[in-house]
Amino acid sequence: MKKTVSAFVLSVATMAATTAVSAADTIKVGVLHSLSGTMAISETTLKDTMLMLIDEQNKKGGLLGKELEAVVVDPASDWPLFAEKARELIEKEKVSAIFGAWTSVSRKSVLPVIEELNGLMFYPVQYEGEESSKNVFYTGAAPNQQAIPAVDYLMNDVGATRWVLAGTDYVYPRTTNKILEAYLLDKGVPAEDIMINYTPFGHSDWQSIVAEIKQFGSAGKKTAVVSTVNGDANVPFYKELANQGVSAEDIPVIAFSVGEEELSGFDTTPLVGHLAAWNYFMSVESDANDEFIDAWQAFIGSDERVTNDPMEAHYIGFNMWVKAVEKAGSTDTDAVEEAIIGISVPNLSGGYSTMMPNHHITKPVLIGEIQDDGQFDIVWETSGLVAGDAWSDFLPESKQIISDWRAPLACGNYNVTKGVCSGQNL
Amino acid sequence: MEAATFRPFGTHDWVHMKILLASFLALLSFAVVAADDNELIQALAPDLTSKSAPQRLHAIDTIASSPASRKAVWLQAMIDGDLYQLKSTDDMVIATKQGKEYAVAKASDGTDMGVEKKRALRKIRIDNRMRSYLRSLMGTFALSSDDVDERLKAVNALIGSVDSTTVERIRELEPQESSEQVRDKMGLLISIHDLENGTEAQQADAFSFVSGRLDNDVINSLRRLSVSSDNELVAVRAADLLAKAESSKRWYAHIETLFFGVSLGSVLVVAAIGLAITFGVMGVINMAHGELIMLGAYTTYFVQQLFPNAIDYSLLIAVPAAFIVSGSVGVLIERTVIRHLYGRTLETLLATFGISLILQQTVRTFVSSQNVAVINPSWMTGSWMVNPALSLTLNRMVIIGFCLLVFAILLLVFTRTGFGLQMRAVAQNRQMARAMGIRSARVDAMTFGLGSGVAGIAGVALSQLGNVGPNLGQTYIIDSFIVVVFGGVGNLWGTLVAGMSLGIGNKLLEPWIGAVLAKIILLVFIILFIQKRPSGLFPQRGRAVEN
């Protein structure tokens, strides 16, 4: 008993000593990703990505002559806990920036805290848009950087004229489909050529819906499915498509949430030939990507591990932050926020991404075809970079709203027609 | 859509295509100097590697219309996604995956160029549209193939998208065609063409040929004719045929809905029937039932991992294995936890809920928190085409059959064996059964084991439909309880009737109001039903009532 107590005291003392030392000459970076619970599957990889990036930066000599130190916390897929952990990171750990969150609801939970305490957060996942916070930088895709180009591809290159918008019943698919429907109608697609379908989370019996899609697609017009179906419901969906004889050549399905990481847990046979839209694929042919994959597989100690789009978003976001801190000469939130707008860093597809005044970045949009080894073959890409649009131009309630965080406007939600800057929400 | 019924994405197709390729090459007797081939493909390299799809299509057309001797090899390589450019020399190459690297051969003459890493190669981008275009190009070659399957596939690929020269060619080929199936498809292809583009006599022939057919291309073509034909008579005839075809299509759609309902119902019954034994007969609220299903699904996964070369037979091993695994876990749970809690419903509920969490976390820790990939045996993929308007998916049919089989066996065990008799005796009156010399504790353990084992084999069936992951059980536990309660506790027939009616009800509602609302409406219905008849469809007599 005595032994344990003394060991405990000793370890506490060492811990206190290390914190005391590190507080003086390190810059702390918060990593806010779930390491347990339902989202752990996706988010643990991002935590490891951050550790790798920080490690690499330290090997290059740190930042402003100081070493970077990662502070990892586990919000456990529990949305309110994200807010608490963010508060802990900023108030107690005094981190200079937070890299984290995956689901929109976790980001929304962090938002009031990060704004109250004037922290910095980099959010790496594709999302539904309709948001722009002074303290958040969105390095994942806004709808115009994923959904809209995907529809353009299907319309112009595949020749689709009938559309099925299938999604899981929650905020991201609902908002995205609202934008897409408005966009399609705007493009002159008649309303009877658009079918919208929502299913519950984890839906497993796709028979009727696939039969309906098949029926809808049999009218002699090229039909395509735009899928915002979430996670677990995907496997039975694609299986049913394959079993009912719907092939990717007849009715292609384009998905926004199926990536390399997700495919590693699937039997990919029924998915082969279907499509996904992202800003990065592991199969991108560029030197930067080859280096990143090598570094990642060496860091994680396995050449089986894949890379994916949100990892690239962290890679871009982290490098932007590093550059902004160097430019500002400090890690002060306001100084970094001012410095980061306009900063360009290399992305992994061989070009550069720039931070825009609305806190979104420019990215290329890629369409990939699923292969039987769980990788994507890139079949199409935008000719240039697409700048993220915080407020969709295709929704009547947000098309007159812009976001520009530069002085003198400095507003994330500015109504051009009324000339007023309202709060975060409409 | 016609081609869809032949699953153009099955792995067999690639093999067939390669056979076709060989036979096609043999046909090419005219010799062309290889140097021309090399010049051609290298000259097209910038177009082929271009990011613009029209440019690549142009290159494909140039190849197809060229006299190059190896053009079929290139087109086939493009369909397979095997055509690359070597980054270092800009040579066009055909590369096939060998382990982690690629075996490279020169495209122009097939010379072996060794092995290269993926990174040294630039892939020629082929998307779905190009692939079906390439396939139709190859299809015209394949019409004269020796292989019946090849010809059939080629004709199917051409239906609805032929030009008049190809139609004339098929018109010549048709009378000599040996296979009836292929000849029929050729006739269909010609008729669809003639309906809108043929002479009057051809059109009349075509009408009599397509009469009674339900193929999509026929219906679409009739629809176009009925509104746009200048000839009044033709338009009326088309409209008449169209109306007939559509009414029989509607008929088949009803049959299809019924099939979907029965299939969903059988899934519910399979998932719930184990619970009908543990909850229904023994009165134990077993919240870990879902996890016993999950264990069965994982057993399937491990069986497939153990015998990766015998996927087609894996389910035959997995069914008994899953019964044993889940059954023994069930007996273990009963012996260590549940037997101490008989008659204390709330405590049983909490304890088994705890067990369900433990089982989930065990799988997460020792297997993976990620879903695992369970492969469908080949005899459970695809569908059985009754006619162009109705095809029934094989995996669903197998599961319906499996459900009925399990049900029949359980019914036999209950009513025709000594163990079943003892089980019913203990369920109806434990004291009296003991007085008659039945060892009730042993019967309890066996009954729970049986229910758990049946949950395990349900897991095998469900692994063929959806995800296999630690959360699998949670998806089915609620539905299982609903089925058992609705059917009447302790009655196997009740479970069958309840499962089937919920399945069919759900599928009838779904096309009208969507999947989300359909589920809600059914739940509301069950709440109301249980208010009226608290003991379900088939109320039980026995211990459960006396208590």
Features:
heterodimer, A: 426 residues, alpha/beta, Rossmann fold, 2 domains, 7-stranded mixed sheet, 5-stranded parallel sheet, 12 helices, 19 strands, 39% helix, B: 547 residues, alpha+beta, 5-stranded antiparallel sheet, two-stranded antiparallel ribbon, globular, disordered N terminus
Q: State the distance separating the first and last CA atoms of chain A.
A: 60 Å
Quaternary assembly: heterodimer
Q: Averaged pLDDT of chain A, please?
A: 88
Helix content of chain A: 25-40%
Q: How much is the average pLDDT of chain B? A: 84
Structure description:
The complex is a heterodimer of chains A (426) and B (547). Chain A is an alpha/beta fold. Chain A has 2 domains: 2-142 and 287-362, Rossmann fold, CATH 3.40.50; 144-284 and 368-387, Response regulator (Rossmann fold). Chain A is 39% helix and 19% strand. Chain A contains 12 helices and 19 strands. Chain A has helices at 2-25, 40-59, 79-92, 104-116, 147-158, 171-186, 207-216, 234-243, 260-263, 287-300, 309-328, 333-340; strands at residues 26-32, 67-73, 97-100, 121-123, 136-138, 162-168, 194-199, 223-228, 253-255, 275-278, 344-346, 352-354, 362-363, 366-370, 376-381, 386-387, 401-404, 411-415, 420-421. With 547 residues, chain B is an alpha+beta fold. Chain B has helices at 11-27, 34-48, 53-65, 71-80, 128-142, 148-158, 164-173, 180-197, 200-210, 216-228, 232-281, 289-306, 311-336, 345-366, 394-416, 418-428, 430-435, 440-463, 472-487, 492-532, 543-546, and strands spanning 83-86, 92-98, 101-106, 112-116, 121-123, 383-387, 390-393. In chain B, the strands form 2 sheets. In chain B, strands 4-3-2-1-5 form a 5-stranded antiparallel β-sheet. Chain B has a two-stranded antiparallel sheet with strand order 6-7. In chain B, a hairpin with a 2-residue loop joins strand 2 (92-98) and strand 3. Chain B is globular, with a radius of gyration of 31 Å. Mean pLDDT of chain B is 84; it is low at 1-33. The interface between A and B is large, with 61 and 66 residues.
